[in-house]
Backbone:
């Protein structure tokens, strides 16, 4: 059974940094397009980043609100996704999720909407809280 597990969340002051990780069982991240999302209380889910499959298949895509501050990467040897978050702000406070597009190898133009139902896997999330 495929399982995604995020870690690395926590409480940080504004201007600080965190690095999130996502590991998977029964699935190789390098085979699919993979993404990070976040959702704050009372707000809609927001696409944070998306990475294409394999190596050398283009740069990650980022949501406008995190461009220049967040960096998404993948370690294929460890089968782990990373989200390096710098210059965190209170508005970055949210539950962060990793996800896999099992029907896509290249991040679709609609990646920020998330995988279609039945065509993706999600982690359980890790909480990031940024204090002012």
Residues:
């Amino acid at each position: 059974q495929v399982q995604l597990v995020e870690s690395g969340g926590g409480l940080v002051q504004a201007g600080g940094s965190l690095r999130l990780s996502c590991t998977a069982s029964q699935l190789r991240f390098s085979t699919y397009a993979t993404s990070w999302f976040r959702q704050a209380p009372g707000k809609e889910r927001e696409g944070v980043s998306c990475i294409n499959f394999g190596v050398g298949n283009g740069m990650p895509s980022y949501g406008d609100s995190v461009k220049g501050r967040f960096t998404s990467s993948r370690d294929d040897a460890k089968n782990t996704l990373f989200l390096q978050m710098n210059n965190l702000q209170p508005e970055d406070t949210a539950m962060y999720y990793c996800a896999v597009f099992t029907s896509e190898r290249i991040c679709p133009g609609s990646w920020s909407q998330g995988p279609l139902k039945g065509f993706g896997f999600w982690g359980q999330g890790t909480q990031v809280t940024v204090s002012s």
